[in-house]
């Protein structure tokens, strides 16, 4: 995704339409290292301009966000406050569709004289920058920038205090809003063998890949068409689409956000997007600034969820590996305990032949009346024969006790591994949509509650996100199906929410969610049980397999043993069904918030 010059042109038009020219600088904040927010106040209200030079989310827009600011403002923020506070915004300009927006201010310097200051917001990916300048002797000189560019960083263009500001290198290309589109064929002629979308990006400035592909799709219903495949009719269609897009920019007639089906923002464009068909979701916006605010807020949330879920999965894997290593050591020790009978046998033989032993002997050979033949028993020369026999019996008792304890510990460890595996499965199924942060929080709290991790000091007083409800589905026969998101929710769903005659389902010996079919006094048909079983298989570790066994029984036959980990239950009177997981069925039967609102309205 890239914020192109055409979209920035719409932003500039929106700022002019909102009458920001003439507004005065009220406050300036720097909530993060590469982000500036300037609050402007005019007679009829106030607006905030956000400028970001972060490589992955560089942008300029009017914002309604209120991010938390650091207690101590950074040096660049204090410098901007000194230069711009109380100043009046006199101009917002953009050179063609270049990805640079200039904000000019009329300010007062330290001695009370009027001066001209400018902020240049350069939106250029990893080269993005926010530069503060002042006008001296007819030229713009850099006061400072949010990113200083030295000779070590770039040999082409420096950005340092007190040097004359120079524009970034600019290739000679056409501007969509100010060129003669009737000669589009001549402009594209040198790129005959190149895909049309890439050729358009080489010919025109300020357009993004999504718009270039939209041009190709509008021309030939093929985003991969080459320039050489264009005939006169297609060239005319292309020129018409470009003229209409240029008018769209000048008239500032809405914009579009493209999202994946799970709601994660994918891209944006200043014209309607049709190239994806039903593969993506297109959401129209009247305000380009509102779109940018929503786009980057959701993407930042998705990135934050991705990072936190990755950290959580790594923590769970470390716990799993720690328990596995401990189990391996215990199994090795248990294997060594298999020699306990040898010590008891030697003790018995030594006791039977104690009259033949004397203190000081290092060994004794006697008949092995169990296995036949002779056996040599090592002796401690410092002990009496009776004491040597007691020592052998003590070794036997120690190994016997160790074997019993290790057997118990290994069983507990295997149960722990099963539990951690179920937590990992729940964490791996956390998506990137709404509620994902709450889902991660709940799983983390579960691990804290079971003693596997400690809560960080910064999180102890933090406000907990709103608890998530279970996933809801409706079968083809009209039965409601509830699915737990994690082990704590599984317990609540199975032991508190489910009624005795509700149906309970879970994958057999595979970590996964508890699934409940609400009977509501009716007989649950086999078709609903099959659908619920497929949902249970899809919400389990076996979701990528086939023929997954799913156990089902009435909720009254499901119990939780005393002291069992969250999500661990026992059940009787169950039957088993083999089903194939299906993501399509999940989407088909899922009950959305919109469906809930419709049901409430009825």
Task: Describe the secondary-structure layout.
Layout: H1 5-17, E1 24-32, E2 35-42, E3 45-52, E4 59-63, H2 75-84, E5 88-93, E6 100-108, E7 114-122, E8 129-136, E9 139-145, E10 174-175, H3 184-188, H4 196-203, E11 204-205, H5 209-220, H6 232-251, E12 255-259, E13 265-269, E14 281-285, H7 288-336, H8 340-352, E15 363-367, E16 374-378, H9 385-428, H10 436-449, H11 457-460, E17 471-474, E18 480-483, H12 487-497, E19 503-507, E20 515-517, H13 526-538, E21 548-554, E22 558-559, E23 570-571, E24 575-579, H14 583-589, H15 593-601
Parallel strand pairs: 10-11
Antiparallel strand pairs: 1-2, 2-3, 3-4, 5-6, 6-7, 7-8, 8-9, 12-13, 12-14, 15-16, 17-18, 18-20, 19-20, 19-21, 21-24, 22-23
Helix pairs in contact: 4-5, 5-6, 7-9, 7-10, 8-9
Short note summarizing the structure:
The protein has 602 residues and is α+β, with helices and mostly antiparallel strands. It is built from 15 helices and 24 strands.
Structure description:
By secondary structure, the protein is of the alpha+beta class. It folds into four domains: 5-145, ibrinogen binding protein from staphylococcus aureus fold (Roll), CATH 2.30.310; 174-286, Helicase, Ruva Protein, domain 3, CATH 1.10.8; 308-468, Helix Hairpins, CATH 1.10.287; 471-601, no CATH class. The protein has helices spanning 5-17, 75-84, 184-188, 196-203, 209-220, 232-251, 288-336, 340-352, 385-428, 436-449, 457-460, 487-497, 526-538, 583-589, 593-601; strands at 24-32, 35-42, 45-52, 59-63, 88-93, 100-108, 114-122, 129-136, 139-145, 174-175, 204-205, 255-259, 265-269, 281-285, 363-367, 374-378, 471-474, 480-483, 503-507, 515-517, 548-554, 558-559, 570-571, 575-579. The strands form seven sheets. It has a six-stranded antiparallel beta sheet. It has a five-stranded antiparallel beta sheet with strand order 5-6-7-8-9. α7 (288-336) runs parallel beside α10 (436-449). The radius of gyration is 36 Å and the shape is elongated. The two termini are 42 Å apart.
């Amino acid at each position: 995704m890239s914020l192109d010059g055409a979209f920035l042109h719409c932003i500039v038009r929106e700022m002019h339409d909102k009458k920001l020219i003439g507004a005065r600088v009220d406050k300036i904040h720097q909530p993060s290292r590469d982000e500036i927010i300037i609050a402007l106040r005019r007679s009829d209200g106030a607006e905030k301009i956000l400028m970001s030079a972060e490589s992955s989310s560089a942008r300029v827009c009017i914002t309604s966000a209120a991010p938390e600011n650091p207690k101590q403002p950074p040096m660049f923020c204090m410098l901007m406050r000194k230069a711009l506070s109380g100043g009046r915004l006199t101009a917002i300009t953009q050179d063609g569709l270049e990805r640079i927006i200039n904000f000019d201010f009329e300010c007062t310097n330290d001695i009370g004289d009027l001066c001209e200051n400018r902020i240049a917001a350069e939106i250029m990916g990893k080269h993005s920058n926010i530069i503060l300048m002042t006008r001296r002797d007819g030229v713009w000189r850099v006061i400072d920038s949010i990113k200083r560019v030295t000779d070590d960083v770039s040999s082409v263009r420096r950005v340092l205090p007190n040097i004359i500001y120079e524009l970034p290198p600019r290739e000679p290309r056409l501007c969509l809003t100010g060129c003669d589109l009737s000669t589009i064929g001549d402009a594209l002629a040198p790129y005959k063998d190149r895909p049309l979308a890439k050729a358009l990006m080489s010919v025109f400035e300020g357009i993004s890949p999504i718009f270039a592909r939209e041009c190709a799709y509008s021309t030939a219903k093929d985003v991969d068409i080459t320039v050489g495949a264009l005939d006169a009719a297609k060239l005319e269609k292309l020129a018409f689409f470009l003229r209409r897009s240029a008018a769209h920019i000048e008239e500032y007639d809405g914009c579009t956000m493209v999202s994946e089906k799970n709601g994660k923002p994918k891209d944006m464009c200043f014209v309607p997007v049709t190239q994806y068909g039903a593969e993506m979701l297109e959401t129209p916006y009247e305000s380009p600034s509102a779109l940018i605010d929503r786009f980057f807020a959701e993407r930042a949330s998705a990135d934050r969820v991705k990072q936190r879920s990755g950290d959580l999965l790594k923590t769970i894997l470390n716990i799993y590996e720690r328990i596995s290593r401990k189990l391996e050591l215990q199994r090795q020790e248990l294997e060594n305990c298999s020699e306990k009978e040898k010590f008891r046998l030697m003790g018995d033989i030594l006791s039977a032949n104690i009259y033949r032993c004397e203190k000081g002997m290092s060994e004794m050979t006697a008949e092995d009346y169990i296995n036949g033949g002779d056996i040599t028993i090592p002796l401690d020369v410092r002990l009496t024969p009776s004491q040597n026999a007691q020592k052998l019996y003590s070794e036997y008792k120690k190994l016997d006790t160790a074997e019993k304890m290790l057997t118990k510990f290994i069983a507990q460890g295997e149960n722990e591994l099963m539990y951690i595996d179920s937590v990992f499965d729940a964490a791996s199924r956390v998506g990137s949509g709404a509620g994902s942060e709450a889902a991660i929080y709940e799983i983390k709290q579960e691990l804290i509650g079971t003693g596997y991790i400690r809560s960080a000091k910064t999180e102890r007083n933090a406000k907990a996100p709103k608890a998530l409800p279970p996933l809801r589905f409706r079968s083809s026969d009209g039965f409601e199906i509830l699915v737990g998101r994690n082990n704590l929710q599984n317990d609540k769903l199975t032991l508190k929410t489910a009624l005795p005659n509700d149906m309970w389902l879970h994958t057999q010996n595979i970590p996964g969610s508890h699934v409940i079919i609400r009977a509501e006094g009716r007989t649950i048909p086999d078709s609903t049980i099959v659908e619920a079983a497929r949902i249970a298989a899809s919400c389990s570790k076996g979701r990528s397999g086939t023929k997954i066994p799913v156990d089902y029984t009435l909720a009254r036959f499901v119990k939780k043993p005393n002291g069992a980990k969250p999500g661990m239950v026992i059940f009787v009177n169950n039957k088993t069904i083999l089903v194939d997981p299906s993501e399509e069925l999940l989407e088909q039967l899922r009950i959305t918030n919109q469906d809930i609102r419709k049901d409430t309205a009825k």
